[in-house]
Amino acid sequence: MFVNPDLCPLSMNTTAWPAPIARTLAEQVYRAVRARIIDGALAPGSFLREKDLESMGVSRTPIRDALGRLASEGFLERLPHRGFRVPEESAGQLLELYPIVASLELLAGKAALERFSGDDLAELKEINRRLAESMDQGDVRAIVELNNLFHGLISERSGNRRLSSLLDDLRSQLGRLELWYYSHRERTQRSIREHEELIQAIEQDDRARALAILESNMSLTYRSLREGAVG
After folding, report:
1. What are the pLDDT digits (tens) for 146-182?
2. What is the pTM of this model?
3. pLDDT score for 5
4. What pLDDT shows up at residue 133?
5. Cβ neighbour number for residue 38 with a 10 Å cutoff
6. Which site among 33, 45, 190, 208 is 20 to 30 Å from 60 CA-CA?
7. Yes or no: is domain 5-91 CATH 3.30.1160.10?
8. What distances in angstroms separate CA 58 from CA 26, 52, 113, one per listed residue?
Protein backbone atom coordinates (compact mmCIF):
# COMPACT_ATOMS: atom_id res chain seq x y z
CA MET A 1 0.00 0.00 0.00
CA PHE A 2 1.41 3.40 -1.02
CA VAL A 3 1.39 6.09 1.63
CA ASN A 4 2.09 9.68 0.71
CA PRO A 5 5.29 10.59 2.62
CA ASP A 6 4.05 14.17 2.90
CA LEU A 7 1.40 12.89 5.28
CA CYS A 8 3.98 11.19 7.50
CA PRO A 9 6.22 13.80 9.10
CA LEU A 10 9.45 12.18 10.28
CA SER A 11 9.62 14.36 13.37
CA MET A 12 6.66 12.62 14.97
CA ASN A 13 8.60 9.36 15.23
CA THR A 14 11.79 10.71 16.77
CA THR A 15 10.62 10.28 20.37
CA ALA A 16 10.30 6.74 21.66
CA TRP A 17 6.87 5.62 22.81
CA PRO A 18 6.79 4.43 26.44
CA ALA A 19 6.23 0.76 27.16
CA PRO A 20 2.75 0.35 28.66
CA ILE A 21 2.40 -0.67 32.29
CA ALA A 22 -0.66 -1.73 34.31
CA ARG A 23 -4.28 -1.56 33.10
CA THR A 24 -5.01 -3.18 29.72
CA LEU A 25 -2.54 -2.69 26.91
CA ALA A 26 -5.17 -0.93 24.82
CA GLU A 27 -5.89 1.46 27.69
CA GLN A 28 -2.20 2.26 28.12
CA VAL A 29 -1.72 2.92 24.41
CA TYR A 30 -4.86 5.07 24.43
CA ARG A 31 -3.63 7.16 27.38
CA ALA A 32 -0.13 7.59 25.97
CA VAL A 33 -1.34 8.79 22.57
CA ARG A 34 -4.07 10.98 24.05
CA ALA A 35 -1.56 12.67 26.38
CA ARG A 36 0.71 13.53 23.44
CA ILE A 37 -2.23 14.95 21.51
CA ILE A 38 -3.34 17.09 24.46
CA ASP A 39 0.12 18.44 25.30
CA GLY A 40 0.90 19.14 21.63
CA ALA A 41 3.71 16.61 21.21
CA LEU A 42 1.61 15.23 18.36
CA ALA A 43 0.92 18.44 16.49
CA PRO A 44 -2.34 19.18 14.67
CA GLY A 45 -2.22 17.58 11.24
CA SER A 46 0.26 14.87 12.31
CA PHE A 47 -0.32 11.55 10.60
CA LEU A 48 -0.35 8.38 12.71
CA ARG A 49 -0.42 4.71 11.69
CA GLU A 50 -0.63 1.53 13.71
CA LYS A 51 2.94 0.57 12.89
CA ASP A 52 4.22 3.90 14.25
CA LEU A 53 3.28 2.65 17.73
CA GLU A 54 4.86 -0.79 17.52
CA SER A 55 7.90 0.53 19.41
CA MET A 56 5.68 0.38 22.51
CA GLY A 57 6.21 -3.37 22.39
CA VAL A 58 2.55 -4.36 21.98
CA SER A 59 0.71 -6.15 19.20
CA ARG A 60 -1.43 -4.51 16.55
CA THR A 61 -4.71 -5.45 18.27
CA PRO A 62 -4.45 -3.15 21.33
CA ILE A 63 -2.96 -0.44 19.13
CA ARG A 64 -5.89 -0.74 16.72
CA ASP A 65 -8.36 -0.66 19.61
CA ALA A 66 -6.72 2.42 21.14
CA LEU A 67 -6.61 4.37 17.88
CA GLY A 68 -10.20 3.44 17.09
CA ARG A 69 -11.29 4.70 20.51
CA LEU A 70 -9.39 7.96 20.05
CA ALA A 71 -11.06 8.43 16.66
CA SER A 72 -14.52 7.77 18.11
CA GLU A 73 -13.86 10.39 20.80
CA GLY A 74 -12.61 12.98 18.30
CA PHE A 75 -8.94 13.03 19.29
CA LEU A 76 -8.01 11.55 15.91
CA GLU A 77 -9.52 11.60 12.43
CA ARG A 78 -9.71 8.29 10.59
CA LEU A 79 -8.33 8.42 7.04
CA PRO A 80 -9.52 5.40 5.00
CA HIS A 81 -6.62 3.16 3.93
CA ARG A 82 -4.05 5.63 5.31
CA GLY A 83 -4.32 5.63 9.09
CA PHE A 84 -5.20 8.51 11.40
CA ARG A 85 -4.50 12.22 11.69
CA VAL A 86 -4.59 14.65 14.60
CA PRO A 87 -7.35 17.20 13.87
CA GLU A 88 -6.16 20.64 12.81
CA GLU A 89 -7.45 22.14 16.04
CA SER A 90 -5.85 20.10 18.79
CA ALA A 91 -7.50 18.94 22.00
CA GLY A 92 -4.95 21.04 23.90
CA GLN A 93 -6.07 24.18 22.09
CA LEU A 94 -9.72 23.38 22.73
CA LEU A 95 -8.93 22.78 26.38
CA GLU A 96 -7.91 26.43 26.67
CA LEU A 97 -11.53 27.40 25.98
CA TYR A 98 -12.87 25.85 29.18
CA PRO A 99 -11.81 28.59 31.63
CA ILE A 100 -13.27 31.14 29.21
CA VAL A 101 -16.56 29.27 28.93
CA ALA A 102 -16.73 28.81 32.71
CA SER A 103 -16.24 32.55 33.30
CA LEU A 104 -18.89 33.47 30.75
CA GLU A 105 -21.28 30.85 32.17
CA LEU A 106 -20.95 32.45 35.60
CA LEU A 107 -21.58 35.89 34.13
CA ALA A 108 -24.71 34.59 32.40
CA GLY A 109 -25.74 32.65 35.50
CA LYS A 110 -25.63 35.72 37.75
CA ALA A 111 -27.99 37.57 35.42
CA ALA A 112 -30.23 34.53 34.85
CA LEU A 113 -30.83 33.98 38.57
CA GLU A 114 -32.71 37.29 38.62
CA ARG A 115 -35.02 36.18 35.83
CA PHE A 116 -35.88 32.49 36.32
CA SER A 117 -39.57 31.59 36.31
CA GLY A 118 -41.34 28.46 37.49
CA ASP A 119 -41.68 27.38 33.86
CA ASP A 120 -37.92 27.74 33.38
CA LEU A 121 -37.22 25.48 36.34
CA ALA A 122 -39.71 22.93 35.05
CA GLU A 123 -37.93 22.97 31.70
CA LEU A 124 -34.52 22.48 33.34
CA LYS A 125 -35.92 19.49 35.24
CA GLU A 126 -37.33 18.00 32.06
CA ILE A 127 -34.02 18.42 30.20
CA ASN A 128 -32.18 16.76 33.08
CA ARG A 129 -34.71 13.90 33.09
CA ARG A 130 -34.13 13.34 29.38
CA LEU A 131 -30.38 13.52 29.99
CA ALA A 132 -30.66 10.67 32.51
CA GLU A 133 -32.78 8.71 30.05
CA SER A 134 -30.14 9.15 27.33
CA MET A 135 -27.47 7.97 29.77
CA ASP A 136 -29.43 4.76 30.39
CA GLN A 137 -29.67 4.29 26.62
CA GLY A 138 -25.94 4.91 26.15
CA ASP A 139 -26.60 7.73 23.68
CA VAL A 140 -23.56 9.95 24.24
CA ARG A 141 -24.35 12.42 21.48
CA ALA A 142 -27.82 13.00 22.91
CA ILE A 143 -26.25 13.52 26.34
CA VAL A 144 -23.94 16.23 24.98
CA GLU A 145 -26.81 17.92 23.13
CA LEU A 146 -29.05 17.89 26.20
CA ASN A 147 -26.28 19.16 28.46
CA ASN A 148 -25.73 22.05 26.03
CA LEU A 149 -29.49 22.65 26.02
CA PHE A 150 -29.51 22.79 29.82
CA HIS A 151 -26.71 25.35 29.97
CA GLY A 152 -28.07 27.15 26.92
CA LEU A 153 -31.36 27.78 28.70
CA ILE A 154 -29.48 29.33 31.63
CA SER A 155 -27.45 31.66 29.40
CA GLU A 156 -30.56 32.55 27.38
CA ARG A 157 -32.34 33.65 30.55
CA SER A 158 -29.50 36.09 31.23
CA GLY A 159 -31.26 38.44 28.83
CA ASN A 160 -27.96 39.13 27.03
CA ARG A 161 -28.35 37.81 23.50
CA ARG A 162 -24.73 38.38 22.51
CA LEU A 163 -23.47 36.54 25.56
CA SER A 164 -25.87 33.67 24.95
CA SER A 165 -24.87 33.42 21.29
CA LEU A 166 -21.17 33.50 22.14
CA LEU A 167 -21.60 30.69 24.67
CA ASP A 168 -23.54 28.59 22.14
CA ASP A 169 -20.67 28.96 19.67
CA LEU A 170 -18.01 28.08 22.25
CA ARG A 171 -19.95 25.02 23.44
CA SER A 172 -20.20 23.74 19.87
CA GLN A 173 -16.41 23.99 19.50
CA LEU A 174 -15.96 21.83 22.61
CA GLY A 175 -18.14 19.06 21.23
CA ARG A 176 -15.51 16.37 20.74
CA LEU A 177 -14.06 16.86 24.21
CA GLU A 178 -17.56 16.66 25.66
CA LEU A 179 -18.14 13.41 23.76
CA TRP A 180 -15.03 12.00 25.41
CA TYR A 181 -16.14 13.17 28.85
CA TYR A 182 -19.68 11.86 28.67
CA SER A 183 -18.62 8.49 27.24
CA HIS A 184 -18.03 7.54 30.91
CA ARG A 185 -21.30 6.82 32.70
CA GLU A 186 -20.12 7.89 36.14
CA ARG A 187 -19.24 11.34 34.79
CA THR A 188 -22.68 11.73 33.28
CA GLN A 189 -24.21 10.72 36.61
CA ARG A 190 -22.16 13.36 38.39
CA SER A 191 -23.25 16.05 35.95
CA ILE A 192 -26.91 15.07 36.32
CA ARG A 193 -26.56 15.18 40.10
CA GLU A 194 -25.01 18.65 39.98
CA HIS A 195 -27.81 19.81 37.69
CA GLU A 196 -30.32 18.61 40.29
CA GLU A 197 -28.45 20.44 43.05
CA LEU A 198 -28.34 23.60 40.91
CA ILE A 199 -32.08 23.49 40.32
CA GLN A 200 -32.68 22.97 44.04
CA ALA A 201 -30.45 25.94 44.94
CA ILE A 202 -32.35 28.16 42.48
CA GLU A 203 -35.67 27.03 43.94
CA GLN A 204 -34.40 27.91 47.41
CA ASP A 205 -33.12 31.27 46.14
CA ASP A 206 -29.63 30.35 47.37
CA ARG A 207 -27.73 32.26 44.71
CA ALA A 208 -24.26 31.84 46.17
CA ARG A 209 -24.66 28.06 46.23
CA ALA A 210 -26.21 28.03 42.75
CA LEU A 211 -23.25 29.90 41.27
CA ALA A 212 -20.76 27.65 43.09
CA ILE A 213 -22.48 24.56 41.69
CA LEU A 214 -22.58 26.07 38.20
CA GLU A 215 -18.86 26.84 38.36
CA SER A 216 -18.07 23.30 39.52
CA ASN A 217 -20.25 21.74 36.84
CA MET A 218 -18.59 23.73 34.07
CA SER A 219 -15.10 22.67 35.16
CA LEU A 220 -15.77 18.90 35.25
CA THR A 221 -14.57 18.14 31.72
CA TYR A 222 -11.59 20.48 32.03
CA ARG A 223 -10.38 18.86 35.27
CA SER A 224 -10.91 15.34 33.97
CA LEU A 225 -8.96 16.03 30.79
CA ARG A 226 -6.09 17.67 32.63
CA GLU A 227 -5.88 14.80 35.11
CA GLY A 228 -6.46 12.13 32.48
CA ALA A 229 -3.70 13.40 30.22
CA VAL A 230 -1.11 12.50 32.82
CA GLY A 231 -2.97 9.69 34.58
Report:
1. 999 999 999 999 999 999 999 998 888 888 788 878 8
2. 0.67
3. 41
4. 97
5. 22
6. 45
7. no
8. 9, 11, 53
For the chain, give the mean pLDDT: 85
Architecture of domain 96-230: Up-down Bundle (1.20)
Same CATH fold assignment for domains 5-91 and 96-230: no
